[in-house]
Amino acid sequence: MLKQDNAQPLPFFFVGQTVTQERINRYQESKHPLLSGAISKPDTKSVWYTRDHITQLLAEMEKANADGLRIHLGMYGENENYSGQLCLLMVMTQVDEQGRQVDITIENAPDFQARSLDPDQTRDFNVGSPCPPIC
User: Could you please report the per-residue DSSP string of 29-98?
Assistant: First the structure.
């Protein structure tokens, strides 16, 4: 058996290129045409986030004592960029007293008001680049 120094085991949730591509293809061949037809234009196929965006999100999760992240599917409103298109909404979670994963509402944090006034503070963890139109 070949031993590689410093080799890190893959995370348990790694599904590989084949499974990833199969799942993308199934979505793009079945659901994507239905969603695109419903809004009469190409709907979102993917959303891209920068490394900095993810780093800031992880820092915010640490500050909020979050133990997880729930990603909701949402839709942009009529008067927003990408009107009608699918979007992803990231919500931090933690375990409540009954042992359930519940959403963390950062607006309820004691320092929210002061942090929301800071012009250097990133406020939105749900602004990725949707494809289309940015592919």
Answer: IIIHHHHHHHHTSPPP-EEE--HHHHHHHHHHHHHTT--EEEEEEEE--TTSTTTT-EEEEEEEEEE-TT
